[in-house]
Amino acid sequence: MPTNYTSNYGLSQWVGSDAFVHEDFNADNYAIDEALKGVSDAVKIKSYEHILTAACTASGMQFDVNVSNINFTEYLAVDLYADIDVTAVTETDLFIRLNNVSTNAYKYSPDGGNTKSATNYLAKAVLKTGYSNKPHIRFSAPESAAIIGCFGPAWSPNNLGFTLGISETVKWRDLASINFVIGSGSMPIRSGSKVHLVGIKKELGV
Questions:
Q1: CA 164, CA 192: separation in Å to the nearest integer?
Q2: Which of 12, 44, 150, 188 has fewest C-beta within 10 Å?
């Protein structure tokens, strides 16, 4: 039997005169195994994982990302990161839409406030040569019958703030594509632009 035990997990601490008993080793290994499992579960539930990366293969005024094979309800949270390459020498708008819905089927608040206006996009970025041009949005919680909303920075070279966007028609269960559309000017989205989706997957019956 060990004379002493560690303060956190009660692991055996032998001194020179102690006898070694295999039950003590087994108990220590069990305690270590349980502690490591707890750490592993905590990491799984809190860590983002890669869902999808889509690359634009041909320059054009619209870049469509097919997400029809993704079950978003498996995730607690979903974020979108875009790396959009344009040849613009002046500012150009980039609209983000869902399922190619382009009518006034969205509500948008440019300052994140309570006042929301009807628009033809879920979110908007202002792109400009020499700037990051890497929009990032966080979607609302993916629930099958819920409409899709998003929250993100106001992407403008001269504007800092946060925006809110809501789709009034597209629900998570119906989401088939995310569309990136140049809204003004004639500078296309260039081949090689990429969109990344990451999420926190539900674990432990969450």
A1: 28
A2: 44
Pairing between β-strand 147-153 and β-strand 136-139 as defined by DSSP bridges: antiparallel
The strand pairing partners of 82, in sequence order, are 195
Which helix (H) or strand (E) segment holds residue 30: the answer is helix 22-46
90-108 pLDDT tens trace: 778 888 999 999 888 898 7
CB neighbour class for 40 (10 Å; exposed up to 12, middle 13-18, buried from 19):
exposed
Global pTM?
0.72
Q: Identify any residues that bridge with 13 across adjacent strands, giving them in sequence order.
A: 4
DSSP states of 180-201 as a string?
EEE-SSS-PBPTT-EEEEEEEE
| pLDDT value of residue 154 | 52
- CA dihedral over 159, 161, 166, 172, signed as positive or negative: positive
